[in-house]
């Protein structure tokens, strides 16, 4: 039975009846996949996707970003086909900045593509650079080792946010970072999310990271894959390192872990 308020909420992301084949329909790596994320304007949502390697997590993000079409099925963002709903930002695990451009130019890039005047786009880029804690690095080239791995991901996050996306897709964005930087970036991302409330769809292999960040965790079974499990994370909205010491956090990590083990072992 749908919740009473569900009738008033649109889905910001809607994937229905998705099938994906790479061999002309002989076999399907994704089969019967449905995924609905409701819109919560001015509140946002933090959704984390977990699944074994090769389950199709990146593929789901590529559908939502409009980078790939499924063999069958419907993909809607804010009720529209993805090609007509362009306000989607994406952050990848690999550093994706243009190394021959400065931090400021990299962050401003999406607005340059949109034809926004230079003074305006650089002013907006400065705001985002402040938001991600990169003040003082604007004129450095966005390349390693001039910038550290964590700083390069900050550039990527700032760039993904500059065009005011309704949806921010993050594909293992902290996967390549050392543990200290990773924990710092989790807190930075939470802080940003509380300020600007996009709907975030975040892929990770790290269950403790998933529980720390998410409102909801969705789990994919191995191929032919689809979402089979969902855990709502009922931790307080504002979280910090202390949250990880609470009984509820530990309990949720265990619950998600148990469900992942059951899914991947086919139980
Ligand atoms: N162009 C392609 N041709 C054939 N198979 C493909 C193609 N693109 C993706 N696949 C397969 O689709 C499956 C899902 O890939 P995807 O990258 O989405 O998985 P994933 O869950 O993100 O994996 P990981 O956690 O390892 O990043 C994989 O088995 C992959 O080999």
Automatic annotation (TrEMBL):
Q: Which Pfam families match?
A: ABC_tran
Q: Which InterPro entries match?
A: AAA+_ATPase (IPR003593), ABC_transporter-like_ATP-bd (IPR003439), ABC_transporter-like_CS (IPR017871), ABC_transporter_ATP-bind (IPR050166), P-loop_NTPase (IPR027417)
What does the record give as EC number?
A: 3.6.3.-
Could you tell me the superkingdom of the organism this chain comes from? Bacteria
Cited SUPFAM superfamilies? P-loop containing nucleoside triphosphate hydrolases
Q: Name one GO molecular function term.
A: hydrolase activity
Q: Residue limits of the ABC transporter domain?
A: 13-247
Query: What CDD domains has UniProt attached to this entry?
Result: ABC_NrtD_SsuB_transporters (cd03293)
PANTHER family according to UniProt = ALIPHATIC SULFONATES IMPORT ATP-BINDING PROTEIN SSUB, TAURINE IMPORT ATP-BINDING PROTEIN-RELATED
Quote the protein name from its UniProt record: Aliphatic sulfonates import ATP-binding protein SsuB
> To which species is this protein native?
Neolewinella maritima
